[in-house]
């Protein structure tokens, strides 16, 4: 078998992504993701604890309260499902008076400049859908970034969450 020439590309493979996500979530550096670590990690991208618990349950069939690497990779391969639905589910649970859309936006906008750039979106994707591809990300960016300036502003974000059809100009 001739060894394949390594591709000169800087894009991480899905497996790299999974390891990256695992490391991001695994605060105490042991071999498992605890429910607490999972909740905390997902909270940084605007996912409410209740929604995080539901997800956790789905990938922890033995109910041990810990995701081992195998269970975690099952999560990573499937992802969280539709991200918009995930944020919306959180919205339904939000307390009155809390603007959950704004909270989610702030969670995604790490540097707080009022726009979500591709790097910030990538961080969200690594945690919520680790097996995503560059194409997935480009598609998502395109779908949300209506004025095509390369980043997502608050208005574009709320429109996307609300799934408003783009208005014909
Ligand atoms: Ca851990
Ligand atoms: Ca930003
Ligand atoms: Ca934009």
TrEMBL record:
Q: Which GO terms describe its molecular function?
A: calcium ion binding
Q: Which domain of life is it from?
A: Eukaryota
The record ties this protein, via Gene3D superfamilies, to:
EF-hand
Q: Where is the EF-hand domain?
A: 47-82, 96-131, 132-167
SMART domains, A to Z: EFh
The record's PROSITE patterns line, in alphabetical order, gives: EF_HAND_1, EF_HAND_2
Arranged from A to Z, the UniProt key words for this protein are: Calcium, Repeat
The answer to whether keyword Repeat applies is yes
The answer, when asked if Disulfide bond is one of the entry's keywords, is no
- The protein here is known as EF-hand domain-containing protein
Organism (species): Polarella glacialis (Dinoflagellate)
